[in-house]
Amino acid sequence: MNTSNTQLSAFPDSKNHYKILDGLRGVAAIIVVAFHVFETHSTSHQDQIINHGYLAVDFFYVLSGFVIGYAYDDRWGKMTLAGFFKRRLIRLHPMVIMGMIVGAIGFYFQACNYWPTISQTPAWKMLFVMLIGFTLICGPLSMDIRGWHEMHPLNGPGWSLFFEYIANILYAVFVRKFSNTALSILVILSGIALIHLAVTSTNGDIIGGWSVEPEQLRIGISRLMYPFFAGLLLSRINRLSPIKYSFLLSSMLVIIFLSIPRIGGTTHLWMNGLYDSLCVILIFPLIVFIGANGEIKGKYTSKLCKFLGDISYPIYITHYPIIYIYTAWVSDNKVPLQQAWPMGILVLFSSILLAYVCLKFYDMPLRKWLGNRFIYKTPN
Fold this sequence. Notes:
It contains 13 helices and no strands. Mean pLDDT is 92; it is low at 1-14. It is an all-alpha fold. It starts with a helix and ends in a 6-residue tail after the last helix. The relative contact order is 0.18. It has one domain (3-374).
């Protein structure tokens, strides 16, 4: 592996990429964009198209836990806590900042009937919220300049990165030292908490986590703990078992399980909660196992997985400001899906293009410079 690829990789030094997992991350990120486009036209959770797209966040957490375990579990004799946190910040934070900047630009030019508070928000307050967003620190409700009670009102998906950082801190400070038995106990207890959340939810799902309100913080922690540490446990116990057509199989499973219509209707909400639990606890680790044990032989499949993996995080962290604009347009003009679908497709491709531009001209060069400056020329 050459130096430049190493510096931009999630895996340090001699570690090889799980290329299929990269591809799966991109597939899930594109589904998230489509989910949010369709969400604009839904009247409730019941008629949402790509109904379970919100579970992509939980799938990302399984992937993250697996990657962290594979990349760092055997490095702690040569790496300090500071070295680990530097690597994670360099990997994640440049795009956090870019996502907030894109969100601020969209907010400034977004006066509309759907969000009347936008035109009443002074520029200084918006810039202050953007600066808070740069840190991923939860702002108080007084800084909720959009009115959706979002933790990061300029770029809603920042909430999941907030919890991702919590998982990284827990792993580095405590959980990396756990034996597999202790880690298994943590995973089991977290799974029980997740099932309880899902089946007792007033909406019959595990949607939530994006607000500083106590119940939302509970949802966020519950959604984080099982998938992330189940992914970590899977990375420790995984034994290579070659699986044919792994990328095709695992991609189809991601698409199918995120697109399943609502289960149980309004009279049996617990059934959909049980489905959410089944996906997070059993299906997503299985998909990651399939992806981790596959092999890519075709040149074009390899390029596709690399492209999807490269743009996956930039798509996720920059697409929602475009969704805000689309949502306001649909709401203000009462545009039904039958008429809005060309704009919806434009939103999808615009999100991919924006992600690619941010990746090539900002994220990759900046991470390379930061890696050379703070990691590869200094002790870990």
